[in-house]
Amino acid sequence: MDPVEFARTRLGFEPDERQAEVMRSQTKRGILNCSRQWGKSTVAAAMAVHRAATRPGCEVMVGSPSGRQSGELLRKAEKMVRQMGMKVERDGTNEISIQFKNGSRIVGLPGKEGRIRGFSASLLLFDEAAYMEDETYESLRPLIATTEGDIWMMSTPNGRQGFFYRTWAYGGDEWLKVRGPATDCPRISKKFLEEEREAMGPVRFPQEYLCEFTEAEGAMFDRLVITRAVHKSLKMVDLA
């Protein structure tokens, strides 16, 4: 079934136009650089449940900065599974997991690199990716080595650092890059954004709501300028 139709009729989730584009994408590599409350985790949960429910024996792995964060995405997935009229069951090995009758499962992984080896995946999701350590990301990528699986990462920016920033700035054509500022989100009002702009200031607000990779307040040098000086071959890019 079409993933958007599946979400609407089976999961009780009505994606907006941009979310529907993401869910229908056939890309193997995707990155969502989206504002707070855009619905990143909900879209990821719907993608995970659709994949697991429609492909027997499918393994969906969820990486995040911590086991608690992975658990939040799994809780969204659990709600969708119940919406389908199914009982939520664990896989018998992992506390943060959902086992499906067709042999598929969704597993939320802990944030520590040393505790996430030994898995494989046909869909690998990175939630709040900008806040994950590079070592964790690098240890998770081999999970798709034998499955030729898909990778999706999603986050708001966290400065010009880490694998999420590098993928957005320098990732090749194989990556579908989706920017979702709060100003384009139909669920976030202009009044609320003006209040947040006033409260958060000129550095934090563009990062949290406009998807901009800003430097920390008080930083002496721009990280992108330093990177460009060290790696002469890198091209300056528009990160907005």
If you had to describe this structure to a student in words, what would you say it looks like?
This protein has helices at 3-11, 17-24, 40-54, 67-83, 134-140, 162-170, 190-209, 223-230, and strands spanning 29-34, 59-63, 97-99, 105-108, 123-127, 150-155, 175-180. With 240 residues, the chain is of the alpha/beta class. It has a single domain, classed as Rossmann fold (3-Layer(aba) Sandwich), CATH 3.40.50.300. A seven-stranded mixed sheet has the order 3-4-2-5-6-1-7, sandwiched between helices. A hairpin with a 5-residue loop joins strand 3 and strand 4 (105-108).
Element layout with pairings:
Blueprint: H1 3-11, H2 17-24, E1 29-34, H3 40-54, E2 59-63, H4 67-83, E3 97-99, E4 105-108, E5 123-127, H5 134-140, E6 150-155, H6 162-170, E7 175-180, H7 190-209, H8 223-230
Features:
240 residues; alpha/beta; 7 strands; Rossmann fold; seven-stranded mixed β-sheet; 8 helices
In short:
Helix content is 39%, strand content 15%. The chain has helices at 3-11, 17-24, 40-54, 67-83, 134-140, 162-170, 190-209, 223-230, and strands at residues 29-34, 59-63, 97-99, 105-108, 123-127, 150-155, 175-180. It has a 7-stranded mixed beta sheet, sandwiched between helices.
